[in-house]
Amino acid sequence: MSKIGVFDSGYGGLTVLKSLVTAMPEMNFVYLGDNARAPYGDRSFETVFQYTRECVNWLFDQDCELVILACNTASAKALRQIQQVDLPLRNDNKRVLGVIRPTTETIGNETQTNKIGILGTSGTIKSESYKIEIAKFFPQIQVFQEACPIWVHLVENDLLGLEGTDFFVKYHIDNLLLKDNEIDTILLACTHYPLLIESIEKVLPSHIQIVSQGEIVATKLIDYLNRHSEITAKLELSGKREFYTTDQFNDFNTHAGKFYGQSVNAVRVVIP
Ligand code: DGL
After folding, report:
1. What is the 3-state secondary structure (H, E, C) of the chain?
2. Which of 76, 163, 196, 221 has the fewest CB atoms within 10 Å, counting from its CB?
3. In the chain, what are the domains?
4. Could you report the per-residue pLDDT of 78-127, keeping only the tens digit for each?
């Protein structure tokens, strides 16, 4: 029997896993954080692709039938190539899904002004993936983007709630809102950013809503599994969770609770 793999460059994907587990408590999930090589946000296309591919293959080797790239940067820079080049070479029908498509399929329903702000890593923003995908589903919507390269570091280094952190949050929110004053919806297009929600809410005008991805991805995954009984039939349903990191497991265990909402017991793995 198989499991669902959830991959992120580090801790951020745990915010998505939390929503997946809440929506599908019976499902077996394997989480892999590539903490040793994180952050991915400023890395080249080739590097993000290589790292992501290695991690996906490792999750496939752990009997994952389906892998969710719970990382926007990996979804933007590696997903298409894995889906179009790697998967067809396998004979086992395994699948890989990202977080950008499910988000862009629904985000357009949230805005009244048809103006959306996207906050993400430099890699995600430069890839223009959100602009391209939103245009497919909601061509009437204008998308404004802001890369927030320092935010992942603030989260990874446990600097939440500090004055300095609030400064850099305000800096990027102000930059985004200067691009258009009718933005009414902001997407946290990086799985780390929900951890900064308190700082974001402090500076964001109250008429602007914040959208995080966890629940969207969970709802869309349930829908996907309902439509793909050939995958669902192979999935084990005993509510088991496994956590792996490519760096120190005790560091991972210490930090993971903030993202996942409960303590975890991770095992270190060496990839590739
Ligand atoms: N969590 C990743 C994302 O959603 C970003 C973290 C990183 O830069 O590695 O894009």
Report:
1. CEEEEEEECCCCHHHHHHHHHHHCCCCCEEEEECHHHCCCCCCCHHHHHHHHHHHHHHHHHCCEEEEEECCHHHHHHCHHHHHHHHHHHCCCCCEEECCHHHHHHHHHHCCCCCEEEEEECHHHHHHCHHHHHHHHHCCCCEEEEEECHHHHHHHHCCCCCCHHHHHHHHHHHHHHHHHCCCCCEEEECCCCHHHHHHHHHHHCCCCCEEECCHHHHHHHHHHHHHHCHHHHCCECCCCCEEEEECCCHHHHHHHHHHHHCCCCCEEECCCC
2. 163
3. 3-99+215-268 (3.40.50.1860), 101-212 (3.40.50.1860)
4. 999 999 999 999 989 999 999 999 999 999 999 999 999 999 999 999 99
Mutational test site, ligand 1, from 192, 212, 247, 255, max ligand atoms within 8 Å of CB: 192
Cβ of 121 less than 6 Å from ligand 1: yes
Looking at residue 269, its pLDDT comes to 98
Q: Which atom of ligand 1 is nearest to the CA of 192?
A: 1
Could you tell me the two tokens for 158?
A: 């446990």
Work out the average pLDDT over 133-149.
98
When pLDDT is averaged across residues 47-56 and rounded to a whole number, the result is 98
Q: Which of 47, 64, 117, 43 is nearest to 244 (CA)?
A: 64
Taking the whole predicted model, whether its pTM rises above 0.85 is answered as: yes
Which ligand 1 atom minimizes the distance to the CA of 8?
A: 1
**Integer angstrom CA distances of residue 160 from 121, 234, 262, 270:** 18, 41, 18, 30
